[in-house]
Amino acid sequence: MANQLHIYINNPTAGGTDGTEASTGAGTSPIAVTLDAAKNEEAAVKCAVRCDEGFKIDGDVSIAISGESADKWKVAADDSYEDSAAALASATWGDTLSLSDVAAANVLFWAKASSSSTETPQKDASVTINATGKVVVA
Hints:
The chain is mainly beta. It has one helix and ten strands; from the N terminus they run ββββββαββββ.
């Protein structure tokens, strides 16, 4: 059975069905940020999770981060933040997140990446943001 639960990026709207599906292994549409480690920068990306039409999640969706440099990433629930600067300033960031009421419309969350002056410049593709939930017919 194909995966009916997906993560979307490129400014998805709450309750909508817009956004671009994030990569599921091919790397063609990754959740990506560019940071200057010398400046200890942070960046937040608005994301959404939703099911294919005709499906929903029974219970909650768990958002978790894994990979070699997962400690540089955090996730947070959306609180109608105006933009990434507001999310960075006000969100409650953590290693995992639970989202409820996930069906065929976007439920927003934020992903944050951080850099440190102790790291060398690199293109790090080791991190995965996973969305897990029990998909059922709506």
